[in-house]
Structures are given as C-alpha cells and as structure tokens.
Amino acid sequence: MAGHLARRIGQYLLVLVVLVMLNFLIPRLAPGDPIDFLLPPEVASGVTEEQRERVMARFGFDDPVHVQFWNYANGVARGDFLTSVRYGRPVTEVVLERLPWTLLIVLSAVLVSTVVGTVAGFRSAWRRGRATDVGTLSFVMFLDSLPPFFVGLLLILVFSVWLGLFPVFGALPSVPSTGVAFFADVAIRAALPTATLTIAALGFIYLTARSAMVSELGEDYVMVASAKGLPDGAIRRHAQRNALLPVWTAAMLNVAVLSGATTVVETVFAYPGLGRLVYDAVIARDYPVLQGAFFFLALMVLAANIIADLAYPLLDPRVRRPRPAS
Asked: What is the pTM of this model?
C-alpha cells in the first residue's frame, strides 16, 4: 500500500514538472504580443519602437525565452506568477479571487452528476433491455450529445428569459447582500452554470455506472446468490458496492473534463471564475494570467487524481492486500 502511494506521488511530481514546462510554452505559441492589447489601435501607430520596448521590458517579455522560463519556474516555486498584463496586479491575487467560483460550480456539478448518474445507471442495469432502460439510455445519450455552450444558451432562454427564474449573468447581485441572503444570491446565480456542467458530465457517469453494474450482475457470485434464493435487494447491494470503483474513477475524471469546460460555460454565463479569466487572458495575450490559471486548473485535476488513489483502498479492500510473490 505504501509502495503504491509512493509510486503514484512520484508520477504526480513528474507530471507537475511537465505541466510547468508546457504551461510556459503553450501561451507563447498564440499569435500576437501582449503589447497589442495594451495599446489601443488609434494609439499604436504613434508609439515609437523605444516606447514599445520599454513596455515589453516592464513585464519581462523582452528577455530571451530561456531567461523568461527560469524566472517563471522560480516564481512558481515561490507561488509568484508575476504581474498581470491586463489587470496590473499580481497574478496569484487575480487567480485566487476567481478560483472559489469555479470550485463551487465544478464540485457541485460533479456531486450532482455522480449521484444522479450512478442511481440511474444502476437502475438501468438492473432493468437492462426493458423499456425503462432503453428510454433512460436514449435520453441520457441525447443530453450527452449537446455541446455545453448550446445547453447553457438554452437554459438561459428558458429559465432566465422566458420564465424569469434565474439571473442571466454574474455571480453576485449589483447590491451586495449579507448572511443567508448572500448564500441564496450565490446559489441562484450558480444554478444554471452548475446545471450546464452537470448535463455535460452526466452521460459519462451514467454509462460507466450502467456498464459496471451489468458486468457485476454477470459474475459468478451473483448467480450463486440468486440460486441460493437471496433477495434481489441483497444481491443488488453487493453488486453495487463492487461497481462503485469505476464510478468513483469516472467522477474524478469528470473534475478534469469540467475544469476544461468552464472556459465555455463561464463565458456563456459571464460567470467570474477561472474559465472566464482564461478566456479574457487569451484575448489580451496575458501570458502570466494564462500560466497562473492553467497551473491552478491543473492542480485541481492532480488533486482529484490523488483523492481517487487514496480512496481506492476504502472502496476495494483488494487494493490493500499485498501482491503475492511471483
């Protein structure tokens, strides 16, 4: 068990090193310079080369690439991601302001999609081949085929424009509230983005749960238990516990999937999370913010994988047993 965790932690550290390298290089592959955003078009024509170089030097973009990478790596080690080109503030400060909003909708969507998808998947597997199974499978596959931006726009049209039940955009009202009213305001504005992400994640969880349960129901221990006259409820409980491991893995993978989907969803809802921050940073060629946002999103994914590894022994006792010597 300890050796398994040590190997996994070593792999995650290697992934983290590769992440830092890619995080530095990928934003610089985008066309254009950050200075193109800083200078309005009507002003850019009158700026001298000396003034342009001075602005680039202010943010360290005039250094050779290897010097920029060294400064970036040192900053990551200290938790310093330099200064935002667009906001003129420390990147860490800007990212940490947005991170809680993304965590709120991503973790809520993972929780809801996992519960709903697992229950629906297990029930479909138990009734496989029947009308309820075929209907549920068809409906979930239809939802899974819809792109998140379309789902978001559809939810806005129905629940915000037609019914007027939810605000169209933002995470907080224009007039700040306190106490219970604050949490209610946050919840009502996070509802539609969370619903969009839940729909995006539901299909994967449902199919994984259904497939795992169907596989378990075909195992010998299920047939033996049925032959002995064990009640269906008891058989189902045993099969469900064994089918939870792939479902748990799928739920943790959904953290990665939804972290990427937040860029689209938060842009549709003008939600002030990391996804919207990434979108704005791409438009502005704000390299420091892109690097900081990608780094924290990747940490979310790595943390989800570590949690999955730590929970495996609790879900499957066989992981705790030492392998027999060959």
From this structure: 0.84
